[in-house]
Specification:
The protein is an alpha+beta fold. It has four helices and twelve strands. The strands form two sheets. Strands 1, 2, 3, 4, 7, 8, 9, 10, 11 and 12 form a ten-stranded mixed beta sheet that branches. A two-stranded antiparallel ribbon has the order 5-6.
C-alpha cells in the first residue's frame, strides 16, 4: 500500500464496510478497534458514493488527537461473493463497498487506484465472509497494519470530508499494544439495516450520499452513531404533525384536572 509522500515508518491499517442483504456492517478493521469494540468509529465517519475518486476524513478525539480515514467506494463484484452478473446485490440493490485505510498522520496527497487495489487484496476474504454470513452481529475481522510506501500510478481526485469530532479520546491504533483477541463481540455502535433504495436501486446512505453534503455512510442520516439525537435517527423521530395537536390536548387535560380538583374541594 502506498500514498503520496508517505514516510517509510508510517503504518496504514486496512478497513472495509459492506452492504449485505441485511444491512451495512464493518467487515474488516484495525485489530485495535476490533479488540476495543470501537469499529463504529469507522462506520460512523465514512461517507461517499461509488466513483473514480478517493475520500479523506479526519476523525478527532476530545483530546485533540486525530485519525485519518483514506478510502474509496465501489460496487462489490458479484464474482467475489458467488453471485451471477457483474455487481453483487443486496436484495434488489447493488451492494456498495467502502475500503481504505486508517492513518495516524494526514497523507500528503491522493493515492492511485492501484493503492486501493492493494487494500482490496487484504480485505477481500473478510468482505466475502461477512457478506455471505449476512449477520450484522458478526465481528469485523482484525487486519494488522502494513508499511505505507510512496505511491505509484495516476493520483485519484481527492474529496476531503468535513472533520468529525468525537466527545471522547480516540483509541491509540497500535497492533503491539492491542492485538486482536479471540471471540471478540461486534461493536454495537455501527451495524445498520438497509434503508429503502432510490429509483435507481442504489442503497440510501453509502451509495447515495452526496460528497458535498457529508452524510454518514451506512446509517440513515447519522453524523455520529454514538452521539446522535432523536432528530438524526428516523426510527426515533416523533410522528409528523405531533407538535401543536399534542400540546393542545395536554393543555385541555390539564384544565380538566384543575376543574375536577375545584369541584371535589367544593363538596
Amino acid at each position: 500500500m502506498s500514498t503520496p509522500g508517505a514516510a517509510p515508518h508510517r503504518t496504514a491499517w486496512p478497513f472495509a464496510i459492506v452492504c449485505t442483504p441485511s444491512g451495512f456492517g464493518v467487515a474488516a478493521a484495525p485489530a485495535t478497534l476490533v479488540t476495543l469494540r470501537k469499529t463504529g468509529l469507522i462506520g460512523g465517519a465514512v461517507v461517499g458514493e461509488p466513483g473514480d475518486c478517493a475520500y479523506l476524513r479526519e476523525l478527532t478525539g476530545s483530546d485533540g488527537v486525530s485519525l485519518w480515514l483514506l478510502y474509496r467506494v465501489v460496487a462489490l463484484q458479484a464474482a467475489e461473493v458467488g453471485q451471477p452478473g457483474e455487481t453483487a446485490r443486496s436484495g434488489s440493490r447493488a451492494a456498495p463497498l467502502a475500503e481504505g485505510v486508517v492513518l495516524r498522520e494526514r497523507p500528503a496527497g491522493a493515492p492511485s487506484a492501484a493503492y486501493f487495489d492493494a487494500v482490496h487484496e487484504r480485505v477481500r476474504d473478510a468482505v466475502r465472509e461477512y457478506f455471505l454470513a449476512d449477520d450484522l452481529r458478526r465481528p469485523a475481522r482484525p487486519i494488522p497494519g502494513a508499511a505505507d510506501r510512496a505511491a505509484e500510478g495516476e493520483p485519484l481526485r481527492l474529496v476531503v470530508q468535513d472533520r468529525m469530532t468525537r466527545g471522547e479520546p480516540l483509541p491509540v491504533v497500535d497492533d503491539e499494544r492491542f492485538p486482536a483477541g479471540p471471540n471478540v463481540p461486534p461493536d454495537p455502535g455501527f451495524a445498520r439495516p438497509v434503508e429503502p433504495s432510490g429509483d435507481d436501486g442504489t442503497p440510501a446512505g453509502l451509495g447515495r450520499s452526496d460528497p458535498g453534503q457529508h452524510r454518514p455512510v451506512p446509517g440513515p442520516g447519522r453524523t455520529d452513531p454514538d452521539h446522535a439525537g432523536p432528530a438524526a435517527d428516523p426510527a426515533r423521530r416523533l410522528p409528523a404533525g405531533f407538535g401543536v395537536p399534542a400540546l393542545a390536548a395536554i393543555a385541555v387535560l390539564s384544565l380538566l384536572v384543575v376543574l375536577l380538583s375545584v369541584l371535589l374541594a367544593l363538596k
